[in-house]
Every structure is written in structure tokens, then in C-alpha cells.
Amino acid sequence: MSPERLARINAMLDNRQPDLTVCLEHIHKPHNLSAVIRTADAVGVTDVHAIWLAESGRISNHKASGSGQWVDVRSHTSTADAVNHFRDQGMQVLVTNLSEDAVDFRDIDYTRPTALMMGNERDGISAEALGLADQQIIVPMVGMVQSLNVSVAAALILYEAQRQRQQAGCYGVRTLDPVRCQRHLFEGGHP
Amino acid sequence: MSPERLARINAMLDNRQPDLTVCLEHIHKPHNLSAVIRTADAVGVTDVHAIWLAESGRISNHKASGSGQWVDVRSHTSTADAVNHFRDQGMQVLVTNLSEDAVDFRDIDYTRPTALMMGNERDGISAEALGLADQQIIVPMVGMVQSLNVSVAAALILYEAQRQRQQAGCYGVRTLDPVRCQRHLFEGGHP
Ligand SMILES: C[S@@+](CC[C@H](N)C(=O)[O-])C[C@H]1O[C@@H](n2cnc3c(N)ncnc32)[C@H](O)[C@@H]1O
Ligand SMILES: C[S@@+](CC[C@H](N)C(=O)[O-])C[C@H]1O[C@@H](n2cnc3c(N)ncnc32)[C@H](O)[C@@H]1O
């Protein structure tokens, strides 16, 4: 591995935010999954969670422009499983929902360990997820369309988290576990 | 038209920002155009500009989830044409570019009349656009992938503009020209 590439990977590892994650519930368009994975990588998210409907095939993440190696896609077969996983990590669970009860996404503290749940392209977030979450959040809209594209909404929230975490000094300090760092350093040399 | 729908359209019109626009140079994936149009509507952008390559067919915006009626897509056959149009309106012209010369998108004043130019999915922004623009801007990334999805990058910048303009009191004050307002009020009653 060239010294430049080693330095690049080490800088990336210093910016990883293992206590920030995003979870996609029943997303069915591959380009939306791809776009979310690219954004996740760009803000330092290490794992993207996906809840798949049993009957639907899993969509692959081959098209996420080379991010597959750097962001792990972790599958769950139910919403409860995914939320339990986030609770085990001490994360607040935020669901995006186009509702009057939802809080403006900029009014949330994302420096806390956080899991962000995004809903299906057509039906939105499930009633189960709504019931399990700590908080509903929304990206305000002042036009006539009813919703944003799901990967767009995810990006707006993840970049707000990035902004807050940068101000709080969360970047440039390695918190990712050493085993995973070794894996990335090893795989990064053998792409 | 019901009183509720009339009120909704009037509120939308009060939030329109005719001096903020986005321009897509040679974008070829319809879902990216759709996503940008939805975001544009959501922040109050009235016109999305598209520069089409002569040989490529124009992509339609039928899939922008009902926003077609509320956001006009204006076509140009060359980058120079589009930039001239923005200059005539006194707009600063910003190009997104993954370069060391680009400024962090959060360091720009979007309360000024602004045109934001986004590049092609594969090749990015053209040399011509770079030469004509006032400023290159970038959304910072701390991972390993090289770029964001184009509709994601556009949304992050448009919502930063929305944030700044909201703070500056630009929303809730009608500035859209009366003829266009009448058109929307008329068409909104006859969808
Ligand atoms: C196309 S939307 C789903 C629309 C669905 N008809 C509904 O009512 O929820 C798909 C997902 O994108 C996200 N999303 C879209 N617009 C959003 C907004 N303004 N605020 C927060 N999340 C949004 C949510 O995760 C949503 O479940
Ligand atoms: C997939 S990118 C193009 C990548 C191309 N290889 C390049 O080097 O420009 C498509 C468009 O998305 C926008 N874009 C993607 N990532 C961006 C970022 N981090 N900052 C600003 N714009 C970005 C730009 O408009 C870019 O032209």
C-alpha cells in the first residue's frame, strides 16, 4: 500500500462515528440504498442497517460507488430486531415521519449515540417503528410535494449530525474499535 | 377549490424564492432529476434549469411526485445560455466541484440571488461551467467514496440556503410575480 493510501485510510478511521447510524425500513429501490451508503461513508457512519421484508429479495449494494468495502450493510428481518440492536448500544432511536408530532430535524442533539430510521418509498415508516422510537423528526418543507426522496431526507439529517459533531470535536479522534480498523487497513491494501 | 387548498397554495406562494435556482448540467438519470425537483419545491425554488446535450433525449420529469405543476423545468441547449440567463437576473453563479479550490458550501451567503450548478453523474461539472462561474463549492466528505449522489449534494446545499434565508426572514413574504401566482392559483384549482 502506498504511504498516501495508508494516510488516507488512517484519516478516514479517525473520522469514523461508530455511535451514529442509519436504518432503512423496507427500502426497495437500489439507487436509494446506494445513495444512502455513499452519504453514510461521507459523514463517517460505519454501518447502514436494512430491514428487509421476508418476501422481497434483498437488494444489493454493488452500485454504491466503491463504498461497499468501507460501510457495512447489516440486515435485520424485523423492525424490533433492529431497534433492540440500537438499544443495546445505548442509542436514541429517531424515526422520520411526515406528521404534526414530528420535531424539526435541526432541533435534535445528534452528538448523543443515535440511530436514524428511514421509511419505505411508498408507505413511509411502519407503525411498529413509530411505536418503538424515542422521537419523530421531520425535514420541514414549504412547497406542494408531500415528501422528499428518502436518500435526500437521510442525507439532510446525517449532515446536520455531521455539523453538530464537528462543532463538538467528534471528528479526528479515533473511536472505532481496533479490530475493525485493522480489517480496513488490511482490506484497503488488497482491494 | 376548497378554502383549505386555496390557503395551502397561498402559503406556498408566500414562501417561493424566485431568486434561488438550481441548474443541472447534462444529468442523465431521471430519478436524479425527480429528486432535485422535489427538493426544489420543498425549499421554495420556482424553476429548475436543465442543460441537455444535443444528442441525448430530454428526460421527462413525470416522476417528480406531483411537483411538475409547481416547479418549472427550463431547458437550455448550452451552458453559456444558462449562465447568461442567471447573470441577467443578477445571480451569483456557484458550481459544485470536487476540487481543492472549492469553498465549503456552508461558507457561502445564499441570501444573495443565487444559481447553483450541479454536474453530470459520471463526469461532473464541465470546464465551461467552471470557467464561467463566480465560485466553486463543495460538500465536505470524510470517508472513502469520492462523491455524493448529485441529488443528495443539491439538497444539502439548497437546505443550507433555506436555513440562511429563513433566518434572514425571506420566507412568508411574497416576492413571486403576480402573473405566475395567478397561474398557480388557477391551475391548482384545476389539477
Ligand atoms: C417518499 S417518503 C414516504 C412517503 C409516505 N407517503 C409517507 O407518508 O410517509 C420515504 C421516506 O423518506 C423520508 N422522508 C421523506 N421526506 C421527509 C421529510 N420531509 N422529513 C423526514 N423524512 C422524510 C422518510 O423516512 C420517509 O419514510
Ligand atoms: C457523482 S458526482 C460527479 C463525480 C465526478 N467524477 C467528478 O469528479 O466531478 C455528480 C455531481 O454531484 C455533485 N456532487 C457530488 N458530490 C459532491 C460534493 N461532495 N460536493 C459538491 N457537489 C457534489 C456535483 O454537482 C457533481 O458534479
TrEMBL record, chains A, B:
Reaction catalyzed:
guanosine(18) in tRNA + S-adenosyl-L-methionine = 2'-O-methylguanosine(18) in tRNA + S-adenosyl-L-homocysteine + H(+)
Protein residues bound to S-adenosyl-L-methionine: 96, 139, 148
Q: What class of enzyme is it?
A: transferase
Q: Does the keyword Cytoplasm apply?
A: no
Q: What is its EC number?
A: 2.1.1.34
Keywords for the protein's UniProt record, in alphabetical order? Methyltransferase, RNA-binding, S-adenosyl-L-methionine, Transferase, tRNA processing, tRNA-binding
* Segments crossing the lipid bilayer: none
Where does this protein have coiled-coil stretches?
Answer: none
Keyword check for Methyltransferase: yes
| Record domain tRNA/rRNA methyltransferase SpoU type: where | 20-159
What family does this belong to? Answer: Belongs to the class IV-like SAM-binding methyltransferase superfamily. RNA methyltransferase TrmH family.
Function statement: Catalyzes the 2'-O methylation of guanosine at position 18 in tRNA.
Write the protein's name. tRNA (guanosine(18)-2'-O)-methyltransferase
Provide the species name: Ferrimonas gelatinilytica
Q: Which residues of the full protein are shown?
A: 1 to 191 of 235
